[in-house]
Structure formats: structure tokens, C-alpha cells
Amino acid sequence: MGSQNRKQEAVDLSHHINVKSKSRHPSPLKEIIKFMGYDGMISLAGGLPHPSLFPLEKARFDCLPPSASLGNESAETDLVSLNLGRGLSPGDLDLTQFLQYGTGAGNRQLIQLAQDLTERVHAPPCDYECLLHPGNTNAWSKVVGLLCEDNDFVIIEEFTYPSAQALWIPLGIKAAPVSADAEGILATNLRETLENWDEKSRGGRRPRVLYLVSVGSNPTGITISAKRHKEIYQVCVEFDLVIVEDDPYYFLQYPGYSPQAEEQPYQPKSTGEFLKSLTPSFLSMDTQGRVIRLESFSKTIFPGLRLGYFIANPLFTERLLRATEVETQDPAGLSQAFTLALFNQWGVDGYLLWLQSLQYQYKTRRDWLISAIYDQFTVVSAAKSPLPTVQGYVACLQDKAIGKLRPVFSFVDPEAGMFVWSKFYFGGVSRFAELEAQSLEDPEQAFAQELWEAMVAELVLLTPGSYYHAWQGPDKISTKARGADPRSAFFRLSFATPTKEQIEEGVKRMRKVIGRFWEATS
Amino acid sequence: MGSQNRKQEAVDLSHHINVKSKSRHPSPLKEIIKFMGYDGMISLAGGLPHPSLFPLEKARFDCLPPSASLGNESAETDLVSLNLGRGLSPGDLDLTQFLQYGTGAGNRQLIQLAQDLTERVHAPPCDYECLLHPGNTNAWSKVVGLLCEDNDFVIIEEFTYPSAQALWIPLGIKAAPVSADAEGILATNLRETLENWDEKSRGGRRPRVLYLVSVGSNPTGITISAKRHKEIYQVCVEFDLVIVEDDPYYFLQYPGYSPQAEEQPYQPKSTGEFLKSLTPSFLSMDTQGRVIRLESFSKTIFPGLRLGYFIANPLFTERLLRATEVETQDPAGLSQAFTLALFNQWGVDGYLLWLQSLQYQYKTRRDWLISAIYDQFTVVSAAKSPLPTVQGYVACLQDKAIGKLRPVFSFVDPEAGMFVWSKFYFGGVSRFAELEAQSLEDPEQAFAQELWEAMVAELVLLTPGSYYHAWQGPDKISTKARGADPRSAFFRLSFATPTKEQIEEGVKRMRKVIGRFWEATS
User: Per the database record, which ranges form the Aminotransferase class I/classII large domain (chains A, B) (predicted)?
Assistant: First the structure.
């Protein structure tokens, strides 16, 4: 997988590999492959179907150029064609290799490309390897299979993508959640959690894995700041944690929202400036080899590719390759072929230009949503809000009765990704007070559900925040049991898919429902 | 996933679902999808990237027609083009859906196609569903995750594909091997194994899963006969086993070898006759819903597709879908798009015609290998062989000293798949006698290794049979400890990839090495 010169050696992290992963052996069939390459060897050993028996002869993919004006549907764009055929002359991209079984390690040129990109973007200080995988869902599944024992605890953000958790809930694994502010999870909280870990009362050993979507997190939209990155990394060194950096939104970083600004036309930066504008990753500061980075093309090319790659300590990629051999084999050949052909056509610089255009698109969409919130609500900065310990901005209604602002929900302006995470405040809402008086187990959840249903009835769909609660076991589900702030609940708003008009109309509908509940004050 | 009318209901098999699989819950995010479809709904809930931001606009695949004359490289064939674009009119195949995230269940039309094929080929008596998966390697991994507990025993053929085992060895799972004759594993042995199962001495509960590559098995080439299929199924009913039918070579069935026959030109049968010529599957006789069939396009279209499907009791597919959501998501979109477009172009009948052409190719290649063995050795039928309990054919050398035939290896003429499995007899070979006299732990393995190395030196590569031994734990590795026939060992010969000339030269080289060892009699 190609070596990188002058890299630091990783510290010994072999104790992080779990019992099952340790006991994997390479397939003897992979051993025999090297003999097939001997000069003049006649192999009666292979179990591969003969490539002349594959019905696909040529593939052509017509693609946008990296400079395409995205989102401007009326613009005519000249497409570039990627042509793949069988048995081309050396140097050309031969389709045959992508139709055949692979070795598990993935196409070599694609691996090399992953390394080139890694050096350009992260320049990791420590020795690493890249290994292809079929998307971050599967990558995370393989990492859990590498590092976690049954009934372990994993450190995650307080709010985390549910499928990442649904994977390990059947293994008895639980979350040890750490709360975040606008700059990401709090290193102090992380240290506290680890320092005070009591195996007995917790019912499991101290966590060894930190799982984070560190940029434009799903659902919170938070991007971990450069300073916070360093603080968190330091705690992980201190307490010997492996950091799993699941970072599909990394290239979708953009500047913050400014209410007064006119819509800026798209103007790409130089590649160097573009790369400099990105927050540093954990990988870029990993002097010990304790970061496993999950890269995905799902958000930058398209999700149906089911293609991405691990960047990790060779100690880990070797074990992940063993799992790949028996669990998935190589990612799909057409996905590998398309991606490699696209990069051959665009170049790495072309890809980085394409990413700038994507960034601009997501920034524009983020602006649509936040502008719509500004249009429908009075938005004040958290500092000016009547609420304690709130971050970012607060969307308020003017309370006619008392002539004052009533806070409804707060949100952090996302500087990456696709989501605005909002925290709703139920204090003073009469319907909530009614529910609270009924001595329900979880009045917050009950009211959040009513609110959500009322919005559905008004034909606007948000994602309930409850979907993203860290799974701490069946006894820690209610707002109170989780120790969450009382009289509040979260919703996730996505700006990835709807049009500007839909976003404006959607927020108007939200406002209507909110008005009904919030103006009826108790 | 579409229902099949007038099917029998499955018996209750819910006790077969293991503890971890039972505790999987559907993702709440999947729940919300149904609200997105409401008339007039504005969704701020989706986390999907906007399809206008995918760079791929059109794909074209140029393919062979199903009637192509395979293996005839000089023949010019008119290719058929599969064209896919974005936002086509309804009815056409729109590329966009394949570029986006799926729901885990796979494309509906492709699922329908899988069902149509299943009805045409197997007409299962019991209610079933089809669920896409990214290849049989992953499918088997998901089935182990569905049915097996750690430290279970799984019933397999005495010789089984090593990656199928490498998957579960880290889970502490062991094989309970059942021996086979030319018609497949012996139902009597299977019953005996189950009847006499002693949990204490075995250290685990009675097996509940039978894993078989039932047609053209890798490595043994054995196809389970219709009669044997029924006997095995009956034992599985009696002892409540789930049958996992991993059947990638099902469509590569062909008539047996006849030494005198001239090479027959390719003449396709009618589709009906073709289907009638195939041995019945376990699925076709599954009146209880206890068969999980793993279908793959790897051997019939191409392996790089990483696409296949489960056919199983809806009780099982529902749990497998839950695993799919968190472990892999849908198979790659381009693979799904290509396969659906190919079927739309070829039709199911076209595909079945294509399969006949493949069959003929593999039959031809099988004939090349066996003819080469006939050319280099004196082949006698097992009945006429001086060896006891041997099946199929025996390749012998003329022993000049005693003027008699000396048996070297036996093989069963494969009537499906890609492999000839050969059992070598070491009795009377002086080098083997030397090794035996050295009181090695496993003289058979030691001599097999020497023989294999001598062949490598002569530039012909076989696959050692030891790769395929059923894994019964580290204390049952040697020939003696496994209870295998003394003074023998196996090799697998594949005829899938080499040319006729390579096969002839390869067997000639084998003969040369064999001559050196076998003619030097003790």
C-alpha cells in the first residue's frame, strides 16, 4: 500500500485490538496468489471465473466538469466522458480488473490516490495506510469489530447518528456521552468522565474508543474547532483512547452566516487557500497512530457509490483487511472503476475544485434556512437571550401580552454539513405545563411528540431529537433519567434537499404551529 | 417486497434467531420516511445530499447479447447498449435513484426481478421474500450474525471453502463435518452426527445450522443429487436445522464427461428444458421455511458486481434487513443499475439463455482438464480400481517393474462448477515411506507439501486440499487427529481460468512430478 517517507512510528497500540479480531488469520488462498505471478507458471489453482465470460464490454460515464456551476439548473454544461473498455493498452484504465474478484485490499491505483489525497489534505505525522471500504456504515461496523468487546462503553457526543449506535446496541455496548458546546465536545468533560470512571458502578471497563463526527456533525452541525481538536487529542493520549474520526462532511465546511450579507456569487479560492480554510483533522495531529479516519465519497460524489477508505495505523489496517476478506471483499468494481476514471479525468486538483463548488452549494442552502428563520422569528444572539447557558442564536416570538421576547428555540449556526440543530424551550408553554402536571414519566418527550405531530399535520417534517440520544441502556431513556435539561427538547432541520421556496414555506408552517403553542402561554 | 399467492406458511422458527439479532431495532430514521411521501409535505427531515450535486449525468454500458458465442474470441459480436440518464420519463430507468442512498431493502424492481427468477427456477412451496445483498461473502457473514451464537457448532461438508470458515473461527465456532460421496453429504452420517451429539464431550449445543455449497461445491465439485437433497432435507426437519444453501454455481450444471465423445457444438435447449435439467434446490422442496438461499451474480454476470440476494422466510429477511441497515446499507448503486438495465434489455429468458452459454463454456473447460488427465494417465473407473472405498475415477501410472497399474489419484467427474477435486494415494511412494518412518506428527501433510512444492518448481500450481479442511479446533488439524484416511491427501484443480493449451501443459507437468515420486516406489 505504498510507504510514506520520514513518518513517525506509532506507539504500540496492539492492546486495543479485541480478542476476536486478534484471532483472525489470513486466508491460505491469499497466500497462494503470489505464486500465480511466477514467470511461466500455469495455475490450476485459481477459482476465478474466466473474464471472457463477463457480458460487459465497455462502460461510458458522462460527468460534470469540476468547474460546473452547481445548483444552476438552467446552465448548459459540457459533460466529460469517462470511457472504459476491456484489455486496453498498458497505462489506460482496463475495465476487466474491476469486473473480476479483488484481493480485499482494493485497486492499487485507487489506494495510491487515497494516499495522495491524504497527504495533500491531512499530511499525517505518523505512519499510516489506506484501505478501501464500501461506505462509512460498513467501515464503522468493521471498526467496532476491531476494537470493542461485548458490553464495552464507547464515548460519543451526547447526540449521535442512531445507526452508528444501532450497530452496537445488540452487542451490549453502551454510550458514555460527553456534552458539547459550539466548538465540539468538551475536553474537560471528556477527562472528567475518564478520570472518574468507576468500573463497578458503570458495569464495564473504562472506554477505549472515542467516536466522533468531528465536522458538521449529524445531528448537531457542530464542527470541532482547531483548539478543541488539540485538547481532545491530548486527553485521548493521556487515557489511551483510539479516536474514530467519521468525517463525511469534512469538505463541506463554509463560513458562518451573516444576516446582512448579500448572496455572494461563487468564487473559488486557490487550492492552497481552500485547504488552509479547512479545520485541522485529528489525523493531521496524530503523532501516535491512534486515529482511525473513515473517509467517504458519499457526500462528495454520490452515496450510491458505496465507496470510501480507512486511513489508519498499519497495525489496524492489517486487521481490518482480514475482516474485509471474510465480511465484504472489495468494494463494488463499477464504483471503483468510476471513481478512479473520474479522478484520472478531473485530477486531484479538479476534485478539490469540485468540493469548493459543493461547499458553496451547502453554504447557500444553510443561508436559505437561517434567513427563513430570521424572516419568521426575532433572532437574538445567545448572549442577549433571557435563557441561561445557551449557545449561538435564539429564535424568539414577540409576546404581545407582556411586550417582551419569548424564546422558542436556540440553534448554533453550522459551519459545515447539512443540519441545523435546534433546542426548543418549553417553559411557559401552557400545553407543556398541562402535561407536566399529569406526572408523566417524560413530559418533555410527550410534548415534543405533540409538537412534531402538529407540524406533520401542518405538512412540515422535522426530525425529532430523541432519535439521536446517546444510548445508555433501557433505564436511561427519559429526559430526567438522562440528566438532560428539563423543559426542553431538540429537533434537527436539514437544508440539504428542499428548494429555497420549500425551506421558506416550511419555516412559515413551523412558525404557525409554534405560534399556536407558544402564544398560548400559561 | 411483493407477496406470493397460495404459498404454505412456514413453521415457527423464531427460536433460531440468535440473541444479538433478536435485539436489533429498526432505525427511527427509517420510520420517518413514510411521512416524507405525504402529499404537499415539506421535509426538513432528510439527511440526503441533493441529487443535483452528483457529478454523474449519464451511464452507458455496452454488453454482449445473451446469445453471444462465448469463448470464441475471433467472433465479432454486435453489442447491445444500456443507456441510463437522469430524470427520465416514468417507465424508463432513472439513474438518479441508484446514485442516492437507499433504504437498505434495495431497488424494488430488482427485488421483483429476483422474485420472478425465484418463481421460474425454484417455485418454493413456502412463503418467502428476496432481499438484496452485496455478494455471498457478506451474505454468509450476515447469516452467521443471524443464527449462530459464539462457540456454536455448524455442520459443513468435510471440505469447505476456507473463507466461509475464517469468518466464524474468531467467534469460537467450530465445524461438525459430515463426509460425502459422489452424490453429496451422506444423510445417514448427518443423522448419526445429530443423533449422537453429546453436548458435554463436544463442548457445545447440537448444531442448528447446515451450511452447504450444494451444486458444484468448492472445492469438491460435488453436486447433491435430487434423491440426496430430499434425504438431507428430511433429516433437517427431524432435527430442526436451518439449511443455508450457498449456491453460486447452480446455473453452471452440465452433463458428465464422456471420454469417447467428440466435442459437441453449442446448442441451446428451450428454457423449459434447460430449467428441467437443473437439479432441484433445497429451496424448491422447503415446505417449512427453513432454507436460506444465497444467490449471487458473481459467477453468472461478474464478481465485481458485489450483488446477490437472499431468498428466505420473511422471519429471517426482516432480521437480515435490520443488519443490512447498520452493517452495509444497499448494494452499490451502479451495480444495481447495471443489473436491472441488463435484465430489462435481455429479459429473464435472455438471462437463462446466457446461462446455457456459460454452462457450455464450463463444460468445455471441464472436458479439457479431464481429457488432459486421460492423455497423461491411465484412467480407470473406481469400480475397477485396486483401491478400496474410492469413488469416480482413478488416474494410474503403468508400473513397469511389476507390469501393473499403480493408482495415483482419484477424482469425481464434476457436473457443475469450476473444480476437479482429487485425492492422492501415497501408499508405496518411497519418499512418503521415508517421511512416515520419521515419526512426524503428520507425514501426509508433510509429503503433500513436498509434492506441491515440487509442482511449483515445475511451474504448475494446484491448491492444497489442506486449505479446505473443516475447522474443528487447533487440536484437530493433523490427518490422524481429523480421523482422515491415512496415506492420502487432496488437491483442487481448477479449469475456470487457463486455456486448453495451458491445461494440457499443466497436467503434463503434474505427470512429470508425479512420475518422479510414484515411479520411485519403495
Answer: 97-509
